[in-house]
Automatic annotation (TrEMBL):
Keywords: Aminotransferase, Cytoplasm, Glutamine amidotransferase, Repeat, Transferase. This is Glutamine--fructose-6-phosphate aminotransferase [isomerizing]. GO terms for molecular function: carbohydrate derivative binding; glutamine-fructose-6-phosphate transaminase (isomerizing) activity. InterPro entries: GATase_2_dom (IPR017932), GFAT (IPR005855), GFAT_N (IPR047084), GlmS/AgaS_SIS (IPR035466), GlmS/FrlB_SIS (IPR035490), Ntn_hydrolases_N (IPR029055), SIS_dom (IPR001347), SIS_dom_sf (IPR046348). HAMAP family: GlmS. Residues 2-219 form the Glutamine amidotransferase type-2 domain. It comes from Nocardia coubleae. The gene is glmS.
């Protein structure tokens, strides 16, 4: 994996391919490459490094041709290198393949190919697919048929794009677990793994479903099932409400900083038309559930990975507080492997910014197989999880480019607050408390702007602590998921080791690590646990540990080395605002250490493999 781009039409292909790859750089990658047909053979160029390195390599920018495929790779099989970069080709140089996903039986296929005398030149799983397709073309004159038959031997996940040098007027794509989207132009077709690579050219798109294959020519496309007896699938292009400028920096130094600044407006979008003052509740029509069904929910389970999981923990806390329904959050990556007991009266919420996270999608499918009721909370219209669930809450965060999630995480929390409010108001949450939450939600955007206005002070604190070898993030109850997310952000973008602990657990072991070289970021809401949180700070200070307090409470003077002040809205909404300074703290620590905040090492934006 990580980024796929393809083109067939009337333009020169290379500029389209390189621009598409550039727009997918935010997803994280370690090498790049492209291939075009030329007189029945392939012209391939690939390199370890950035898209600019590919652009600068030899004659890449001047290669002629109106059809081509390209890829940015994030290593799964084989180290980052020129040889392991995509596209991969067969021995004759006829077939080129780019692939996102993992071939689980790759070693078996590679052994079989080697036994037949095929010389493999990479360590990747993808190269085997190119040889399998080439072999099938010895017995059929249809590229689509050859791809379909070859894929019947492949176990695993793929978003696949195939070029045959002897058929320079067509491309074939297939999907099983890894996203592929087609862009429909005027006498031209585009292919990508993300709409970000397409919106500069067209807003008319087709999302392939799992188990689907498509053949594309300049004048259109044909889709069908991948089965042994294929059936045509009548896909109709839809229009997406996105434009190229949504993916531009707009004067900011990087996308993470831009998206931190966009959070207030993102929250306003998420709230627009969803707050009901008459009944002091929220309107979430995408749930497709009436009041009787909502009252019948026995528990709520949030499923997500990484920051989405921590947002789910915040959501579970809100549901229990406001609706008094048992609620929990689980890592989606573990859910199906523990053979879960699925409650048909529970509501399961699958959380994913991209809507393509494979672990979360697999959890959805497992739930549906066992009769569970599952909704999606996603930020991408037409994504796999959105289509699989068929109901849910759209996050309205806008395109999120930086690998480290900021505005999508905040909008997840906003959405789960509205879900908790809705569930509470069909039960025992009073109208007065409901209106208090409604008013608090309306106050959140201005509070976020106030926090970001204090960025300079947070940046100064980050400068002082950026070179710490490790940090603790401490919180309890409402603040515990905030601490986990804060530690994650710091690790993601600064590479500083960080651990999150519940404040009450410090004395059960981790306190042994506290010393003058170990800063602790302590999350202190102004709630019923304030005195206990102050006691935690005193325990840390007594052992010489520096303390950064992130709080909306009035703390005793000089109890913390540094204090980051947070505005108050409603106590239940404290976690949402307490998270924002931790984004800025991580961001400025990363800048102080010279990190590339938008492209953290070893990470990708959308994780579509296990």
């Amino acid at each position: 994996m990580c980024g796929i781009v393809g083109y067939v039409g009337h333009r020169q292909a290379v500029p389209v391919l390189l621009e598409g790859l550039h727009r997918l750089e935010y997803r994280g990658y370690d090498s790049a490459g492209l291939a075009l047909p030329y007189r029945g053979k392939l012209r391939a160029r690939k390199t370890q490094g950035r898209v600019q390195d590919l652009r600068d390599k030899g004659d890449t920018a001047t290669l002629p041709g109106n059809v081509g495929i390209a890829h940015t790779r994030w290593a799964t099989h084989g180290e980052p290198s020129d040889a392991n970069a995509h596209p991969h080709t067969d021995t004759s140089g006829r077939i080129a393949v780019v692939h996102n996903g993992i071939v689980e039986n790759a070693e078996q296929l590679r052994s079989e190919l080697t036994a037949l005398g095929v010389e493999l030149v990479s360590d990747t799983d993808t190269e085997a697919i190119a040889h399998l397709i080439a072999a099938e073309l010895d017995v059929t004159d249809s590229l689509e048929a050859a791809v379909r038959t070859a894929l019947h031997r492949v176990q695993g996940t793929y978003g696949l794009l195939v070029l045959d040098a002897r058929r320079p007027d067509e491309l074939v794509v297939a999907r099983n677990g890894s996203p592929i989207v087609l862009g429909v132009g005027d006498g031209e077709m585009f292919i990508a793994s993300d709409v970000a690579a397409l919106v500069h050219h067209t807003q008319r798109v087709v999302f392939l479903d799992d188990g689907e294959i498509a053949t594309l020519r300049a004048d259109g496309f044909r889709t069908s099932t991948l089965g042994a007896e294929p059936e045509l699938t009548d896909k109709v292009p839809t229009t997406i409400d996105m434009a190229a400028e949504d993916y531009a920096l707009g004067g900011y130094p990087d996308f993470m900083r831009k998206e931190i600044a966009e959070q207030s407006e993102a929250v306003r979008r998420a709230l627009r038309g969803r707050l009901d003052d008459r009944f002091a509740t929220a309107r979430l029509g995408g749930l497709n559930m009436d009041a009787r069904e909502l009252r019948g929910i026995s528990k709520v389970v949030f499923l997500g990975c990484g920051s989405a999981y921590y947002a789910g923990q915040l959501g579970a806390q809100l549901v229990e507080e406001l609706a008094r329904i048992p609620a929990t959050a689980e890592p989606a990556s573990e859910f199906r492997y523990r053979n879960p007991v699925v409650d048909p009266d529970a509501l399961y919420v699958a959380i994913s910014q991209s809507g393509e996270t494979l672990d979360t999608l697999a959890a959805v499918q497992e739930l549906q197989r066992k009769g569970g009721r599952v909704i999606g909370a996603v930020n991408a219209v037409g994504s796999a999880i959105a289509r699989q669930c068929g109901a849910g809450v759209f996050l309205h965060a806008g395109p999120e480019i930086s690998v480290a999630s900021t505005k999508a995480l905040t909008n997840m929390t906003v959405s789960f607050t509205m879900l908790a409010l809705l569930l509470g108001r069909v039960r025992d949450l009073s109208a007065a408390d409901g209106q208090r939450i409604v008013d608090g939600l309306r106050a959140v955007p201005d509070a976020i702007d106030q926090l970001i206005g204090d960025e300079a002070a947070i940046a100064e604190i980050a400068q002082r602590y950026a070179k710490a070898r490790s940090m603790f993030f401490i919180g309890r109850v409402r603040a515990w998921p905030v601490a986990r997310e804060g530690a994650q952000k710091l690790k993601e973008v600064s590479y500083v080791h960080a651990e999150a602990y519940q404040a009450s657990e410090l004395k059960h072991g981790p306190l042994a690590l506290i010393d003058p070289e170990m800063p602790s970021v302590v999350i202190v809401p102004d709630d019923e646990l304030l005195a206990k949180n102050i006691n935690t700070i005193e325990q840390i200070k007594a052992r010489g540990g520096p303390v950064i307090a992130v709080t909306n409470a009035d703390l005793p003077a000089s109890i913390a080395d540094d204090v980051i002040r947070v505005p108050k809205v409603a106590p239940e909404l404290d976690p949402m605002l307490l998270t924002i300074p931790l984004q800025l703290l991580a961001y400025h620590c990363a800048l102080a250490l010279g990190r590339d905040v938008d492209k953290p090492r070893n990470l990708a934006k959308s994780v579509t493999v296990e």
